Amino acid sequence: MTAALVAFLRAQFDEDDAVARAADAELSTVFTRIATFDPEMAADERHIMRHRPARAHYEVVAKRLMLDEALASRHHVSADQYETCPRATMADGLDARQQAALNALNDEHRQEDGREPACWDSCGRDARVRRTLELLALPYVDHPDYMQALSADQA
Ligand SMILES: [Zn+2]
Known about the structure:
Bound molecules: zinc ion
Number of helices: 7
Largest sheet: none
Mean pLDDT: 89
Oligomer: single chain
Order of helices and strands: HHHHHHH
Number of domains: 2
Number of strands: 0
Shape: elongated
Strand content: under 5%
Helix content: 55-70%
């Protein structure tokens, strides 16, 4: 459901990290020292200093962890399949019997409604994950693949 956006984000994070790691770390350290002692530095220089390679790397590390944490979010599971989010799986804690019962219930709903059962509003897992991915993707709004990644998973 979010595979294209996840792939897009991981590619951007990898590229950001590769650019940061390729930058001259020694030069960055010198610039940081200068920035610390020069309050008269131009705004552009201060901006560049604040986004030195080490910081860029740690921002990528944080974004990767945020992405992993969002994806690890689970659907609501109950002992009663009628109270379990239709999108729940064994990864959310269902055992094989519960998964089979939920699959049967979802099949009934597909036949009745003619569409794929969605994550309930009361569960909210899919909406939370989607929102987190959209926010993580926002800095890449001018990337040529941004819109495609954002819309690929909407269908
Ligand atoms: Zn759910």
